[in-house]
Specification:
It contains 24 helices and 24 strands. It has 708 residues and is an alpha/beta fold. The strands form five sheets. Strands 15, 16, 17, 18, 19, 20, 21, 22, 23 and 24 form a ten-stranded mixed sheet that branches. Strands 1, 2, 5, 6 and 7 form a five-stranded mixed sheet that branches. It has a five-stranded mixed sheet with strand order 9-10-8-13-14, with helices on both faces. Helix 1 runs antiparallel to helix 5, helix 5 packs parallel to helix 6 and helix 8 packs across helix 9. The longest helix has 53 residues. Bound molecules: ligand C2E and magnesium ion (2 copies). The site of ligand C2E has 23 residues, from strand 16, helix 13, helix 14 and strand 20.
């Protein structure tokens, strides 16, 4: 459009210009022709009569014959005329090579440009030349004459004799063609320049206009890109516009709304509406990224409830979820909106506290959280109590990446859970060192299990009234080149923490069953072989099947296997679940023993409902009970409790003859202790028992003496 306009304007201007140039040339020709005619008429006493064209310009000359005389006949007059013209009209002289010497024009010998445009040649205007044809027809001729490599414009007027016969021509030099074209050329250049300027301006203006008009579209495209890349734009622009851009902006707003909803769903824990695991790790990563500048600090709190699964087991998941929801509400209330709270698994809450340089805020909040969460939850089902523990890590001091941060906060939490005093613990270097040692032990233990380095030793259980062997407890032993045997107290807790206890438990169960089967084959009457079962192992859904499989593999009667469980099985497992598992094991026919009774978590309330056959009284009750009447009474009461529940009672840890005698006096079904024998290798068991039994007479004598 713009180009067309420019073209049109240029065309009109050029047309106008050409017209002006042509008019200019005609004007000059006319003026020159009139001057020439006047000079000629004057010089010849008006012997030539000009004839004028339609626009009153002289087009031809007629030799006047009014006087009846041919004015050109007197030769002198013509010569004079020619001389006059030559002298007066330098243009004509130049054109037609007039010289003073010859004082004549070579009248028709001229250098007119050839009509076909070929280089000019000197030739006469004779028949065949367009100038001649024109002149002979009584018409003027305008043409260009090359002079000194330039062109001059010449106007030829025929001089006609009687009968209009061509007698000669009056050549009028109009001027340089260049000069005539100069104005035109200059105007042409100006128009071209103006066109270029206008065009450039138009392009620039157009560019600017397009840029301005497309800016909203580009901005919306960028917003769409951000959306596609998963970054949430701050706001969608141009929603206030009422045109198509506004429609597009509204469309994008709907997309962001949808994305918002999806994002919320993807990052929200459906139970509590706190952040979920994905949100937590994303926040953690962002916090650690920010902390790289050295200014940003944060603390990470990992909180969980000891034995929460018991709530689920006892009251069901619905109630468990409601407790979690209320717990989250309390946490949100304590920590406020600046904290990022997420529930990352069952009862694990992780809280990121920004701008907490030394963990002072975290500690303050942790104390509050423990206090607030320890207040019972009032549910329809009754009051429910939870016991929170907290681990705290400082970022970035304790960890530079999310995985480590989560791990170290978890370590601190575990330390808090294991601690008897502290409910919240900060991650620290010694804690880390302890964990490192544990990790090393774990690695070595794993290797030891693989290469079957772990040994089983057996400790006899003796009936104190007649020294009869009633059972053997299998106890794991880890031989070490430097330390002899590493005691299970060092590696069992680590195996339990790391889950390696499952492998270890399987190993011990298998070995003990194999050994029992061998003894049975050999006709050794050992009563039962007792195997310690850790809570984690006990909770395995496949545990009962494994036990059954072992018994089948070694063809061992179920009653010959006793599984010892500590009261710790109740810590993380609800009563009903414990009951279900125990019932399943009972169906197999194995013996079930409650180990270390009275040493920790008390299961007294539901002891009568659990299908145990045996109660092992913790060593603490027997130690020195023969010397302390109060203790003896306590020991007696516990033995009585077991017996009243119909359980076989085994006293643990009789180290002296006195303690041994006490177990007999209080009618324990069995005892196990160093007094009789420590745990020994399978091959030494028989000898040990025989030795002990042999010593009976001597012991009796000694006792008699003591009594006397
Ligand atoms: P536990 O099941 O109560 O085993 C009895 C522990 O008391 C054994 O320690 C035994 O050596 C020790 N003991 C026996 N008689 C006496 C005594 O007269 N005086 C004293 N002071 N101690 C006595 P041990 O072998 O060091 O085992 C410690 C604990 O390690 C066990 O306690 C048991 O809970 C655990 N454990 C050992 N082997 C295994 C295993 O194979 N699996 C599992 N899950 N735990 C095991
Ligand atoms: Mg035991
Ligand atoms: Mg025990």
């Amino acid at each position: 459009m713009v180009l067309c306009s420019i073209g049109l304007v240029s065309g009109l201007s050029y047309f106008e210009l050409s017209k002006t140039t042509e008019e200019n040339a005609s004007f000059r020709i006319d003026r020159a022709a009139r001057a020439a005619v006047a000079i000629l008429s004057e010089g010849t006493n008006h012997a030539f009569r000009p004839q004028f064209g339609a626009s009153q310009n002289p087009v031809s000359l007629h030799i006047a014959t009014a006087s009846g005389q041919n004015p050109l006949v007197p030769g002198e007059k013509l010569d004079e005329l020619v001389k006059t013209i030559g002298q007066a009209n330098q243009g004509a002289a130049n054109l037609f090579s007039w010289t003073e010497q010859t004082s004549s024009f070579d009248r028709f010998a001229t250098t007119f440009a050839t009509p076909d445009g070929a280089p000019a040649k000197v030739f006469s205007i004779r028949e065949g030349h367009p100038a001649y044809a024109s002149l002979a027809a009584g018409q003027p001729f305008t043409g260009e004459v090359p002079v000194q490599e330039r062109l001059r414009l010449a106007y030829l007027m025929p001089i006609l004799a009687e009968n209009n016969k061509l007698a000669g021509a009056l050549a009028v030099d109009v001027g340089w063609v260049d000069d005539l074209n100069f104005a035109e050329n200059r105007l042409k250049t100006r128009i071209a320049s103006a066109a270029i300027v206008i065009l450039t301006g138009a392009i620039l203006m157009g560019g600017l206009f397009l840029r301005f008009e497309l800016r909203p579209l580009r901005q919306l495209a960028r917003t769409a890109d951000e959306l596609a890349a998963g970054t949430q734009p701050r706001e969608i622009p141009f929603t206030d516009r009422l045109d198509e851009i506004g429609d597009l902006a509204h469309g994008l707003t709907r997309v962001t709304d949808l994305q918002d909803k999806l994002q919320k769903l993807a990052y929200t824990d459906p139970v509590t509406t706190a952040g979920n695991r994905a949100r937590y790790f994303s926040d953690l990563n962002n916090a650690l990224k920010r902390s790289k500048d050295g200014k940003f600090r944060a603390s990470l709190i990992h909180l969980d409830f000891n034995g929460f699964s018991k709530i689920n087991d006892t009251f069901g998941h619905q109630v468990g979820n409601r407790v979690l929801l209320q717990a989250y509400a309390r946490l949100a209330n304590i920590f406020g909106p600046s904290a990022q709270i997420a529930r990352i698994s069952a009862d694990d809450f992780c809280i990121l506290l920004p701008f907490d340089a030394q963990g002072a805020i975290a500690e303050d909040y942790a104390i509050q959280a423990i206090e607030m969460l320890s207040v019972p939850f009032n549910m329809e089902e009754g009051e429910i109590r939870v016991e929170p523990s907290i681990g705290i890590a400082l970022l970035p001091q304790d960890a530079q990446d999310a995985e480590t941060a989560h791990r170290v906060a978890g370590l601190a939490l575990r330390a808090a859970k294991e601690s008897t005093g502290a409910r919240h613990i900060f991650f620290s270097t010694p804690l880390n060192e302890r964990v490192q040692t544990e990790m090393l032990v774990e690695t070595l233990l794993r290797a030891a299990l693989k290469t079957e380095q772990l040994e089983l030793h057996y400790q006899p259980q003796i009936c104190p009234s007649d020294d009869r062997l009633i059972g053997l407890e299998a106890l794991a032993r880890w031989p070490n080149d430097k330390r002899g045997y590493i005691p299970p107290g060092e590696f069992i807790p680590i195996a339990e923490k790391t889950g390696l206890i499952l492998e270890l438990g399987q190993y011990v169960l298998e070995r003990a069953c194999r050994q029992a089967a061998e003894w049975r084959q050999a006709g050794f009457e050992f009563g039962q072989v007792s195997v310690n079962v850790s809570p984690l192992q006990f909770r395995q859904p496949s545990f009962a099947a494994t036990v059954r499989h072992m018994l089948n593999t070694y063809r061992l009667p179920a009653r010959m296997l006793c599984l010892e469980l500590t009261e710790n099985v109740f810590v993380d497992t609800g009563e009903q679940m414990v009951l279900d598992i125990l019932s399943e094991l009972q169906k197999i026919g194995v013996q079930l023993s409650l180990d270390d009774f009275g040493s920790g978590y008390s299961s007294l309330i539901y002891l009568h409902r659990l299908p145990f056959q045996e109660l092992k009284i913790d060593r603490a009750f027997l130690a020195d009970a023969d010397k302390d009447l109060q203790k003896e009474h306590l020991f007696h009461a516990i033995v009585g409790l077991g017996r009243s529940l119909g359980l076989r009672v085994i006293a643990e840890g009789a180290e002296t003859a006195g303690e041994y005698a006490l177990t007999a006096a209080h009618l324990c079904d069995g005892m196990q202790g160093y007094f009789c024998s420590p745990a020994v290798a399978a091959k030494d068991v028989r000898q040990r028992i025989e030795d002990f039994q042999k010593s009976r007479t001597a012991r009796s004598a000694q006792m008699e003496k003591k009594r006397a």
